[in-house]
Each structure stands twice: as C-alpha cells, then as structure tokens.
From TrEMBL:
Record carries keyword Transmembrane: no
UniProt keyword list: Disulfide bond, Hydrolase, Metal-binding, Metalloprotease, Protease, Signal, Zinc
One GO MF term: metallopeptidase activity
Record's protein name: Zinc metalloprotease
Family: Belongs to the peptidase M43B family.
Residue intervals of the Peptidase M43 pregnancy-associated plasma-A domain: 145-229
Amino acid sequence: VNGKIEIPVVVNVLYRTAAENISLAQIQSQIDVLNKDFNALNSDFNSVPAEFSGVKANVGITFVLQNVVRKSTRTTSFSTNDAMKKASTGIAPTTPSTVLNMWSCNLGGGILGYAQFPGGSSATDGVVMDNNAFGTTGTVTAPFNLGRTATHEVGHWMNLRHIWGDANCGSDLVSDTPTHDSANYGVPAAGHRSTCTGTPLEMFMNYMDYTDDRGMFMFSNGQKARMSALFVSGGARASFGI
Ligand code: ARG
Ligand code: ZN
Ligand code: CA
C-alpha cells in the first residue's frame, strides 16, 4: 500500500517436551534475525567480499510477529510430509494469503527446515524449522544457531532457488549470482572458485547456499528483484496487499 513490504507472521509451535515449547524470547530472536537479514542490518553484512559489493542487497522486507499458536503433540519427530500443518496432526495455518506461517517442531533426519514455494496449496503454505535451528537463543544448537535457517527458508518461500540450482553448475534463475559447482558446507575458505564455465568466484556467503549459519550473510540484487516481484499486482503473493 505505502510501498513498504511488511509481512505479518504467525509462529506455530508444536511440542512434545517442555524444551520444544520454545519461549517467546526465542521466537522473537528469530523475527529479529529476519528483520536484520532482509534489511542489510546484519552485523556480518560488511563481511561480504569486495567482489560482490556491487550486488549485495538491502531487500527491504520487514516481518511483524502477529501471533504465536502453541499445541502439544505425541509426535516424537516430524518429517517433510506437512503433518505439522494439519489440524489433526499439528496446527493448521492462519490465513496464509495474508500471513507468513512458520512452524517450529522437532524435525527428524537432520532436517533443519523446509519451505513451500509460491503457487502451492494454501493449506500447506509457509516455512518449517526444527526448534534447534529456530532463532538465536533457548534450544538453538551450533552451527545453526544464528537464525539463518529461517532466512534461507523464507528465501524459498519468496521464490528463491538454491544458489547452485540443485544441479552441478545448475542455474538459480538469478543472473547476478555466479554459477556454483554444488552446495557448500561449513565455512569455505575465502576466494573459493567454481569449476563451472568461466571459473567464477563462488558466492558461498549467500543465504541460499548450505553453509553454516555464520558463513551466510547476503542476498543479491537479482534475488531481491525475484522476491519483490511476488508482492506487486499480478505476483504470486500479491494477496499480501503491499
Ligand atoms: N537444508 C535446508 C533447506 O534446503 C536448510 C539449510 C539451512 N542452512 C543453514 N545454515 N541454516 O531448505
Ligand atoms: Zn533450501
Ligand atoms: Ca545465477
């Protein structure tokens, strides 16, 4: 409406143990990270290498915590089959056409989180994070303790692909991100190059790679354009009414 992209957020907390019933402080710490990372206010933004200083983006999207819904469960660990999003086995989303729904639960199989791309069923729309990778305090566990799992998942929710395009030298459909060999893990050494055409420097510090939380701290202008396009008239998330 005023040109500012402001996303209302509902956090759905599923817990079997008391620890999984994460605190409001932990939830707020995650919202704070999203507001920093999507507004170039993260303290590591100035660690972006000079080679990428021309493309590092202030995305300009803010997140406002609207409500927290809590529910106990007998489920020991959830998978990526969306059971946490169903009223019978979890918590159904709150008005997904105007609210970003996030779920915190115990995800099995070492999964940190997963997201639904724009254009999917509204009944399952949103992002899911393991409670150990949610926010920066409470039950959060290193090296995924800086809230970057949600930054990455919200990137997917806003139509971003993995930077390596989920294929060897694949495409993420963004022109200002270099072609990567494949996913990067841990924290790669400075100057790491791709062996793809042109052997570009890899942008492994991008949120859409797979590094540790402390290794990722930027979106690119091309990624910003892809995200912003969703919220204008005719975009897949235009119902957010921006
Ligand atoms: N594996 C997950 C995904 O593809 C999330 C990876 C998040 N990485 C992180 N450092 N927190 O959606
Ligand atoms: Zn991903
Ligand atoms: Ca690219």
